[in-house]
Design brief:
The complex is a heterotrimer of chains A (about 375), B (about 350) and C (about 400). Chain A is mainly alpha-helical and about 375 residues long. Chain A has 14 helices and no strands. Chain B contains 11 helices and 18 strands. The radius of gyration of chain B is 26 Å and the shape is elongated. Helix content of chain B is about 30%, strand content about 25%. Chain B folds into 2 domains: about 240 residues, Rossmann fold, CATH 3.40.50.300; about 70 residues, 3-Layer(aba) Sandwich (Rossmann fold), CATH 3.40.50. Classes of the chains: A mainly alpha (about 375), B alpha/beta (about 350), C alpha/beta (about 400).
């Protein structure tokens, strides 16, 4: 997840500019190193002890002494680590885009109802189909995982299309945000009604999807998810200049020559692709998309998106990997629900960090 | 950048430089395709090298005019030329390289340093990634120096005082390297020294850098003192243009702003309280104290009699701001300081 | 094995309610016709004599841990220790009809008094229906939460005759309906509902049936005796249970003689998390009694363990039999759901079994209903699939082998 950082090389002729740049470089380097370390840790450790040399051998394409080790590293640990990295980066960057676009510290990747749309899609597949028992055709089992992912993507895309369509007529970003929240509530309500009439085992499957998980993705999933997330991240990186212009508000952005409407559409598209892909494969993962942008701004000391977006990718990946590790502590067999980890462990960390940083939540006008 | 970069400047013959309007009507389009004009038939010119001040009572349409001039509102009729180029036919990006704006919106700069905030102004000049080149950095440093904010460069923009922030926002506008700078009420939140400093700064920028600077303000007296040209919107939505003195002389200022209790004094270029005089007082004081005594008595509705004749009362100054007062009832009292003077005079 | 209830912090209440309400009942078509003779109308006392013991047949509770029965001369006390998860014990005083209401003190002073045998019963869960049909007391059923998922022909017939009121069609209890109809008793689904206190205030006895909190299969089945205490079918219930118990024992003893228990892999993966029955659970007990074992059989608790696939694969990936609970048409469906299933030995060997053989017409699974009363049949299935060589010719009741693809 290391994209080239749009950070200026230090210029000796401007000594006053060195200090903040050096700090940013240090933060980015630390995040990159931390992310790499956690990635290695996630792949090298787990419930079952696999010798590190064997892990390396598998990663290099070889077969381990014990065929089970090959499966564990190749089919379990690597997909999980890659998923956490990609989804963490995706949600963090989507959060940055939303917070800047709406100039709202509480905006997150799901503010436009993307995850609710995805939930509706999943609920429709898990709950709504195949009412007649005996014929298994409509069953989730028949569609397999592809069905769930496809349904989530369609749901997220439907909400995105609706929001983009409405944004044609809505001039104010705040109005759009309110509309997004209402679309989200409506989708959630529909899900609630569907669950009432659902068979209990299916309702349970839906609830489990909602707990969030990095462990569900397999290689066929990754072959779809990684390119989609990559495209979303690239799109986000390319909107950095536009987002910077929006920091002072839409009027200033217009007077600086920005096509505000196009920028808004690009940011909405990028956010929805990222949040939609993350939600489709991992369920609605709480908290990362809201908190990482704040943490990264404070750590970097800037709202400049040319630094903020790459640093948020790293910070998101770092925190997601940390949550992945915490949700499956090495040496134990058990799994804690991912959203419980992100929220219960993450929230106090973030609150402490923000209070200690004295400036608190900054860099987003409210 | 996806904006088309069409330059429409090359129209020889029309080019006059600065900011020019032709038969301009500004206002709002309402939903039903009709429109509400606020000001119409405007033929205004703001020249390079001059500070042009837009004055007028609240609600006269200053902001509407300014937002139209900077392209945030479409004109209802007529044309705006920036450096000779028709604003309507200039792409937003090209326009941003000619015209920069400081808006009334109170910005929350967030976690940006002063340098970064000013650097946002390079937006129309930077490439696809927004990366600042050495030339861009130089322009930012120049703009900060121009507004006297270079010592603030590494400070967080959120920690600036109001006056400092307006300077930095002005620097951001200058960093766009525009020909024309429009500022909407830049002095609104500032204390008096900061207002003076900013207004003078804007005039100096116009003079020294050859910029066309248009500022709207409430600060009439300061504007009339500093401005090279004034656009004055009066109560009947007519816009008068000219040097401050032209407008003062023509009575436009007085008719636009005079009110029940306020009278514009064309000689001093200031406003005075309009009050009926109750009585005339003979004053015996040295020349450097006399205006202060006059001012204090005026507050109590008393005028200074030119000569001793016809005076209803008398005030004599002695060293140490002691006054000897002889009231209309011929009683003599002592007053220590101006406060006691005005309290006693109030009883007359 | 079954993943019937998961300890989900959120939505747990909704789900457990949902579960209990929709589990489809299927009456036992083989219920003895003579059972009708024990209809509840029979047992009222005439000329009450305080010295007479009016309970000639006394049910002994041997396996169930969550309820007790105590007999007095003219009344009995049914106590449910945990009427719903983490609920406080509730006692019900069941007074033989015709006997005077006992004056009780202490803990029982405020207990609900219910005249038995009851003449009308509202059932919140279709798991209750076999308890009625198999003891010949279906006549008392006058209300069900939802008609939609009933699959027993006997019960459906009764519903179609218009003798059964539907009182919670859309999940929420319609309190007005219940109060208007005034049934003698409403039997809960083992979860709490905000409407229950209101119904009690309106004079309707609400009796908890929390059989699902019972960890042992025979314990769950024994709740037929709690139902019989209300319907007066103690004798038939005892006989039925004794048969189930004996049959269960017989298979369990056969299984105990097997030299080494068969390794099985129970549970299913959802979103990458494997839900594995804990060692103290109902499913774990069945596996053990059927002569099987699995790596987490020693991990206590009565619910599910949430495990990562790595651990499951490393410790149980080579188990020859996998007991899943999905309605897969073939093992290809399993691999489609998560391709890592394909790495399991049981999948490559085609030894995947699911408890989805007996599905009702409304979509319910009889394993979760009739299976509750008939653990002997469940155990026989498990024994047969774990030790096929010792159970040649076995007809499976609930389990089916997923065809290998």
């Amino acid at each position: 997840m290391t994209t080239p950082l749009a950070i200026e090389p230090e210029k000796p002729e401007k000594p006053s500019a060195v200090r903040p740049r050096r700090r940013r470089a240090a933060v980015v380097l630390a995040l990159a190193a931390g992310t790499a370390a956690l990635f290695v840790l996630t792949v090298a450790t787990g419930s079952h002890r696999v010798p590190v040399a064997e892990v390396v051998r598998v990663l290099l394409g070889g077969a381990a002494k014990d065929p089970r080790w090959t499966v564990i590293v190749e089919e379990v640990r690597l997909p999980r680590a890659l998923t956490a990295t990609a989804v963490g980066a995706a949600l963090a960057v989507a959060g940055v885009q939303m917070q800047t676009l709406f100039r709202n510290a509480l905006a997150d990747p799901y503010s436009l109802g993307v995850s609710s749309g995805a939930s509706m899609g999943v609920a429709a597949v898990v709950v709504g189909t195949g009412g007649v028992a005996g014929s298994f055709t409509g069953d989730l089992a028949g569609l397999g995982r592809v069905g769930v992912v496809l349904a989530a993507s369609i749901g997220a895309a439907a909400v995105l299309a609706l929001v983009l369509l409405l944004s044609r007529w809505v001039r104010s970003a705040v109005t759009l945000l309110v509309i997004g929240v209402m679309i989200g509530s409506a989708a959630t309500a529909v899900v609630g009604v569907m669950l009432v009439y659902a068979r209990p085992e299916r309702a349970q499957q839906f609830v489990m999807w909602g707990l969030g998980s990095f462990g569900a993705t397999t290689w066929p999933d990754l072959r779809v998810m990684l390119p989609v997330v990559g495209a979303g991240l690239l799109l986000a990186a390319l909107t950095a200049k536009r987002l910077n212009a929006l920091l002072l508000g839409e009027d200033y952005a217009r007077t600086m020559g920005l096509n505000v409407r196009r920028s808004r559409d690009l940011a909405l598209l990028g956010t929805s692709v990222l949040a939609g892909a993350a939600t489709a494969f991992c369920g609605p993962i709480a908290f990362l998309g809201l908190a990482v942008p704040h943490l990264t701004r404070v750590a970097l000391g800037t709202s400049d998106h040319r630094a903020l977006i790459p640093a948020s990718m790293l910070a998101g990946a770092f925190l997601a990997l940390a949550c992945a590790l915490l949700s499956q502590p090495p040496g134990t067999d058990s799994v804690l629900p991912l959203n419980a980890i992100t929220s219960l462990f993450g929230a106090p960390v973030v609150i402490t960090f923000l209070i200690r940083s004295r400036r608190g939540v900054q860099g987003v006008a409210s | 950048m996806t904006e088309t970069l069409t330059e429409t400047a090359a129209q020889p013959g029309i080019r006059t430089g600065g900011l020019e309007t032709e038969e301009l009507t500004v206002g709002y389009r309402t939903r039903s395709r009709s429109s509400r004009a606020v000001l119409s038939g405007l033929a205004l010119h703001a020249a390079p090298g001059e500070l042009t001040v837009l004055l007028g009572p609240n609600g006269a349409g200053k902001s509407t005019l300014l937002r139209t001039l900077c392209g945030l509102l479409p004109p209802l009729e007529g044309r705006i030329r920036i450096g000779g180029a028709d604003l309507a036919r200039t792409s937003p990006a090209a326009l941003a390289r000619r015209l920069a704006v400081v808006l009334t919106d109170r910005v929350d700069a967030g976690l940006l340093s002063v340098r970064e905030l000013a650097g946002l102004g390079r937006h129309p000049h930077t490439g696809f990634t927004g990366r600042l080149t050495a030339a861009d950095h130089a322009a930012v440093e120049w703009s900060l120096k121009a507004v006297g904010a270079d010592h603030l460069a590494d400070r967080p923009a959120a920690e600036l005082s109001d006056g400092e922030r307006q300077r930095v926002l002005t620097a951001r506008a200058l960093a766009q390297e525009p020909e024309v700078v429009l500022l909407d009420e830049p002095t609104a939140f500032l204390d008096v020294p900061s207002r003076v400093a900013l207004t003078v700064l804007l005039r100096d920028l116009a003079r020294d850098k050859g910029l066309t600077v248009v500022v709207s303000t409430h600060d009439l007296e300061l504007a009339l003192r500093v401005a090279d040209a004034v656009w004055l919107v009066d109560r009947t939505s007519r816009v008068h243009a000219g040097a401050p003195e032209d407008l003062i002389r023509g009575g436009a200022v007085a008719s636009a702003f005079d009110a029940d209790h306020l009278a514009f004094d064309p000689l001093t270029g200031t406003f005075g309280l309009r009050r009926a005089t109750r009585a005339a007082v003979a004053v015996d004081a040295p020349a450097d104290v006399l205006p202060l005594v006059e001012r204090a008595l005026a507050r109590e509705g008393l005028s200074v009699a030119d000569t001793g004749a016809g005076a209803d009362a008398r005030v004599s100054w002695t060293e140490g701001s002691r006054f000897t007062l002889v009231g209309p009832d011929a009683r003599t009292t002592e007053a220590h300081g101006f406060h006691e003077l005005t309290r006693t005079a109030r009883t007359w | 094995m079954s993943v019937r209830r998961f300890p989900l912090p959120s939505a747990a209440a909704v789900l457990t309610t949902a579960l209990a309400l929709t589990l489809t009942a299927c009456g036992d078509p083989d219920a003895p016709a003579g059972a009708k003779a024990q209809a509840p109308q029979a047992g009222c006392i005439k000329d009450f004599d305080p010295g007479t013991d009016y309970f000639p047949v006394k049910s002994q509770v041997k396996h169930a841990k969550n309820f007790t029965l105590r007999y007095e001369k003219s009344y009995q006390v049914l106590t449910v220790k945990e009427p719903y998860p983490k609920g406080r014990p509730e006692s019900y005083v069941l007074v033989k009809c015709g006997a005077p209401k006992p004056e009780l003190t202490g803990a029982l002073a405020k207990a609900q008094q219910i005249t038995v045998p009851v003449k009308s019963l509202y059932s919140a869960s279709t798991t209750h229906l076999p308890l009625l049909t198999e003891t010949g007391t279906l006549d008392v059923l006058t209300g069900v939460a939802s008609k939609a998922n009933i699959s027993s022909a006997e019960v459906i017939e009764r519903v179609e005759e218009g003798k059964v009121t539907e009182y919670a069609k859309d999940r929420a209890i319609n309190a007005e309906t219940v109060i208007g109809e005034q049934p003698d008793v409403l039997m809960t689904q083992g979860t709490d509902d905000p409407q229950y206190p209101k119904l009690r205030q309106a004079g309707i006895a609400v009796v908890a049936n929390a059989e699902w909190l019972e960890p042992s299969p025979l314990g769950r089945a024994e709740w037929v005796k709690a139902m019989a205490a209300l319907t007066g079918a103690e004798k038939r219930a005892d006989e039925l249970f004794d048969t189930v118990e004996a049959d269960y024992r017989e298979v369990a003893e056969k299984a105990a003689k097997v030299s080494e228990p068969v390794q099985v892999l129970p549970g299913t993966m959802y979103q990458g998390t494997w839900y594995m029955p804990a060692g103290g659970s109902y499913a774990a007990r069945l596996i053990k009694d059927a002569g099987g074992t699995y790596p987490w059989s020693g991990k206590g608790g009565s619910g599910n363990l949430q495990l990562n696939f790595e651990a499951v694969y490393a410790k149980g990936g080579d188990a020859p039999v996998w007991l899943a609970d999905q309605r897969w048409k073939s093992t290809a469906d399993a691999v489609k759901a998560d391709n890592r299933y394909g790495k399991l030995t049981a999948v490559s060997d085609g030894e995947v079994w699911t408890n989805t053989k007996a599905l009702g017409p409304g979509g319910g699974n009889e394993y979760y209903e009739r299976g509750v009363l008939r653990p002997d049949l469940v155990l026989a299935d498990l024994f047969a699939l774990l030790h096929p060589e010792q159970a040649k010719g076995h007809t499976f009741a609930f389990y089916r082998q997923v065809p290998k693809a």
